[in-house]
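User: I've been trying to design a sequence by hand for this structure and keep getting stuck. Would you show me what you'd pick, starting by listing the structure so we're on the same page?

Assistant: Good idea, let's start from the same input. This is the structure you sent:
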């Protein structure tokens, strides 16, 4: 219950039966740069502090972070799919979705201000509040699945290397980069 800090190496959690895993204890978990956390049907309810780590979900079985997550640097998500962050995500860091073609999910209310980069596969957002207000960068063949009704204002939008002008974007006008019924809006700079 006192917390766990990992500062280097690859940590492979034991295959989970679907219930909450206590392999790293019940207190806050801090993962520092250079750590790879490999999940396998793992469900963690701990508060997570992620300082530039790689989260790897090596199969399509569901792994879930349901506690609050704080991003202090860019966190790499390397997932086949079946991964979800359902807890709220905050902090000045960001997320980069890399390597696999699967879809993983964000369903909490997210306020982190760093960039979200989708290089391959897709991130499925359960609500407008699940889309972080920071910059959103999508590189083909990556996609954002805006699986909600409504709109989220974001700091900026880059699609295929092109910084988009202020406006509202989604499946109807950028189908190469979006699925779902929701939209994101980039506001003009304030004067």
């Amino acid at each position: 219950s006192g917390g766990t800090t990992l500062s280097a190496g690859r940590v492979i959690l034991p295959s989970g039966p679907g219930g909450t895993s206590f392999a790293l204890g019940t207190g806050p978990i801090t993962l520092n740069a250079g750590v790879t956390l490999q999940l396998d049907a793992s469900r963690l309810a701990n508060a997570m502090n992620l300082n530039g780590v790689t989260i790897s979900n090596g199969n399509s079985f569901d792994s879930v972070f349901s506690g609050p997550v704080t991003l202090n640097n860019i966190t790499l998500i390397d997932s086949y799919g079946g991964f979800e962050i359902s807890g709220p995500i905050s902090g000045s860091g960001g997320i980069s979705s890399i390597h696999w073609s699967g879809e993983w999910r964000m369903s909490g209310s997210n306020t982190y201000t760093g960039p979200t980069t989708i290089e391959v596969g897709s991130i499925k957002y359960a609500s407008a509040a699940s889309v972080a207000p920071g910059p959103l960068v999508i590189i083909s063949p990556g996609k954002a699945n805006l699986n909600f009704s409504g709109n989220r204002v974001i700091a900026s939008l880059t699609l295929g290397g092109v910084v988009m002008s202020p406006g509202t974007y989604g499946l109807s006008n950028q189908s190469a980069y979006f699925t779902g019924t929701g939209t994101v809006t980039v506001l003009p700079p304030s004067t």
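That's my pick for every position. To get oriented when you compare it with your attempt: The two ends are 49 Å apart (CA to CA). The mean pLDDT is 90.
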